[in-house]
Amino acid sequence: MPYKKLNFQKLFLLTLSGFLFGFSFPPFKTGVFSFFAFIPLFFVLSDAKGRNFLNAYYTFFVFNLISISWIGGFNHAKDTFLMIGGGALLVIHPFLMSLPIAFFNIIHKNFNFKTAIYCFPFLWVSFEYLHSITEFAFPWLTLGSTLTYDLQLIQLAEYIGVYGLSFWIVLMNILIFILLVKFVLKEFSLRDKSTLLLISLILVSYLLPKIYGNYILTNQNQEKKETIVKVGIIQPNIDPWEKWNTIKEVEQIDIQLKMSVEIAESSDLIIWPETGIPFYILLPQYETYLNELRNSVNIFKFSLLTGFPEIHFFDSTDKNVPKTVKRSKINESIYATYNSSFLLVPDSKTIQKYSKIRLVPFSERVPYAETLHFLSFLEWDVGISGWEIGKDTTVFVLPLKNNDTVRFSNLICYESIYPSFVKDFVRKGAEFLTIITNDSWWGDSFGPYQHERYAVLRAVENRRWIARCANGGISCFIDPYGNVYNETSMFTQYVIHKIIYINKDFTFYTEKGDLIPEFSLLISIFVVSAIIGKKFYIYVRRKNE
User: Active site includes 158?
Assistant: First the structure.
């Protein structure tokens, strides 16, 4: 075969893999593509060892270009920092995603291709897991998230979590790849026992989760529905580019209060979005606004959950002042700000608060800012940068109008993509979950739709209702099986209301956590250690000779 033709075939296969990955993620309802996405890449990897990292980088660049190019905000081009950051992510993230291929290549060189491909599910899931546990974390493209439109396939998440789904997807890719190799090598025969066994394994591996999911969804109405919570969601659709500077604070509160009054009498809880209050309302000079909210809550007897920025001042003599504090240019005061939420309940002066813990790298906070604080100039200067990390998870106590009391936790925006983090709130006692977010920064792009679908997995993993409130969309309710209700459109004002139910039981995943990625990490470490041991043995043997 001519060399140029061979290069064209490789380029086609690598591009095909990138397209299959890209179009398997929301908003495309073709998650089934993920079961085949690795296969063209595997064919290229089986042919060469030298350029596999570059081959993988190209595939994942195409993948990222399709799936997350929206992050740069290129469709509206309103912010230079956003475009530079989005462009940098498109260059850097495929490099990180290619790291499992680098280890695959090492195993291939030191053992053989078969060993490398059998190890690959462990390598990939280890990468996804490690990619979610640092301040640089960006676990947005976790493979298991491709399946959220097929509710039957994701019901196993209550046991294996999203990383377990990723492991299953990679394993299916490998099994189908091996079958195709047999066909290419003309070893495919329905009379061959190994071929029949492989086909049976593929069918069983796919159908068993499907059958289980169908059983669970068929019997979902048998869930316990003893305690109900009447929840209202306010989607005010306030332009995020104007809310911090142009639109007056009092106007924004009035808009949301008027919308809330429509459902106040029939609601136990009303939710406003992330930074629904875009100023430091707990400071003394804003007491009038806080009292207005309290009066509404007391009169209409509903509880209010809203996002807001919180500020904490430090004494200049305090030795424990963090290095990341801000300094006022007016009076030289030292302070820290938090992306927070608070709960106001009727006839109570107590304000329950939670401050966001998992912050968006660079946009909301420079990773490891205590050490890299000199990089603070990289923060996005639109009113949402330089946040401090919240100190602890919070479980809110919510009184109901029937005099019962329930407990819930609130996730702020980006936090909802971290399965283990969400699980910790449930373990702490959250009987349902809320998500407040503002996805309007990126226009009507893939981002808001992806973010909404990822919440579906959090509901299934923990079997908890989720009420999702977004400033300009997409707001909705999600039941413990992933069904979505009252889904709103982008860039419209909406008031939605639904009765949801609490759940106090823990799923296997909630209780045991990420066993599959942790086991995968152990296997990966063992394989790498075996390679090091092999090289050391060869070195010692040659030295002794």
Answer: no
